[in-house]
Amino acid sequence: MLLTNPCVFAAGNEYQIFVPVKNESVMWIKIGDKCYYDESNGVLRSLSRVHRISVPMKVLDDAKKYTVCNQEIRGRRKAYFNKMKPVKEYEYTFTPVTGDEVRCYHIADTHNRVDEPVKAAEAFGKIDFLILNGDVPNDCGKKKYFNSIYEIVGKVTGGNIPAVFVRGNHDIRGKYAEIFGDYIPTVDGNTFFTFRVGNIWGLALDCGEDKPDSHPEYGGTICCHYFRERETQFIERVADCECHKDDTIIKKIVVVHNPFTMKYNEPFNIEEEMFAHWAKVIKEKIRPDLMICGHLHKTGVHPVGGKIDAHGQPCTVVVGSKPDKNYFKGVGYVFRKDSTDVIFTDSNGEISEAETV
User: Fold this and answer.
1) Could you tell me if residue 189 is left (phi over 0), alpha (psi between -120 and 50 degrees) or otherwise beta?
2) Over the stretch 141-161, which tens digit does the pLDDT of each residue have?
3) Closest among 119, 127, 152, 155 to 349, alpha carbons compared
C-alpha cells in the first residue's frame, strides 16, 4: 500500500521517484514496455519503507505517464522461497515542464508542518513544478519526520509534475541525519547538483550547518567545512561547463536554503571568504537570474546591493518562507524570458505581496 502519491524529483539528467509504503515490499516503475527497479546490485530492495527509483528524464517526459508496481512480501524476507502477494499497479499521468511561461511554487522551513504549506501552495494555483528548499523535517531525530517531505510533495504535485528538493541545516541534525541522503534526491551521493526542468536550468546548493563545526551544539558530529570544500570544486566545474549556456534556457536559478551572501552575527558568521568566492564564480560565469532561499523565516525580495548583500550577491535573492503556529507563507513564481512574477501566498488563501523582477 502506498502512503502518498509518488514524488518525482528532478536531479541531474534524471527523475528520482520516491514512493513511501506501509508494508515491506519490492517496487519497480513501468514506462512503456521498460521497467526500472528499486534494486541494489541485482537485489530488489525491501527493507526501507521508502522506495527510490531513477528513470531517464527524457523517457518519462516523452511517455507522459508511468506505472508504480508494488509487491508486498508475506512476512520477513527469507533466504529461499519467499512468499509474495499479488502485484498492485498504480497508474499516473505526468506533465513535464514546457513552454516559455512556467509556474513554480517554493516551500521551505515547514519543520514537520504539512497542511499549512499545502494550503499556501493551493492559494497560488496551478503549477508546473514544486521546490522544497530545506528544513522540511524539523530534524532527523526520527525517520518518521522524513514523511513530511513525501506528504507535501504528494499532495501538491499528485505525482503528476516534477519537484526539486534541497537540503537545509536542520536536515543535518539528529540520529538519522547520516542516512538522510538515502531519502532525498542526490547526484553521485551529493546534495548539490544541477537540474533542468523544461526551459528552466537550476543549480541546487547546500550550505550545510549554520554554525562552526566545532560548535558545542553539534557535539563533534559535523564536518561541513570539508563538505563545502568539495562543493566549491563542484561549483567551479559547473561554472566552466556548457550545461547552463543552452539558448533554449529562459531562466537560470540558484536554489539554496541559506542566503549565504548575508552578513550574519556570531556564531552564524561562518565561511565568509568561501561564500564570497561562491558568489563571485556564480555571478561571473553562470549569471543566474534569481537565487531562491528560505532559512530566515521571513519573506522578501532583495536586489543586488540591498540590505542582505554583504558578500557579492550574484543576482536578486528571494527569501520565500514564513512559518508560524497554524500558519505558513510561501512564494510562487511565474518565470518568463524577460521577467519573473514573485507572488507570496499564505495558508489563509491570501496573496500578501506581489512583485515583478
Assistant:
1) left
2) 999 999 999 999 999 999 999
3) 119
What domains can you pick out in the chain, each with its CATH number? 7-93 (2.60.40), 101-356 (3.60.21.10)
Residue type, 47: L
The torsion angles phi and psi of 27, rounded to 5 degrees, stand at -150, 150
- 3-class SS at 273? helix
Continuous H helices in 106-261: 115-124, 147-157, 224-239
With cut-offs at 50, 70 and 90, classify the pLDDT of residue 231.
very high
Specify which residues 50 forms β-bridges with: 20
Give Cα separations from 82 to 25, 73, 85 (angstroms): 11, 7, 10
Query: Which residue type does 141 have?
Result: G
SS3 for 148?
A: helix
Buried b (16+ CB within 10 A) or exposed e, 180-201: beebbbbbeebbbbbbbbbbbb
Residues 156-203 pLDDT 10s? 999 999 999 999 999 999 999 999 999 999 999 999 999 999 999 999
In the structure grid, which three cell numbers stand for residue 349, read together?
Answer: 488563501
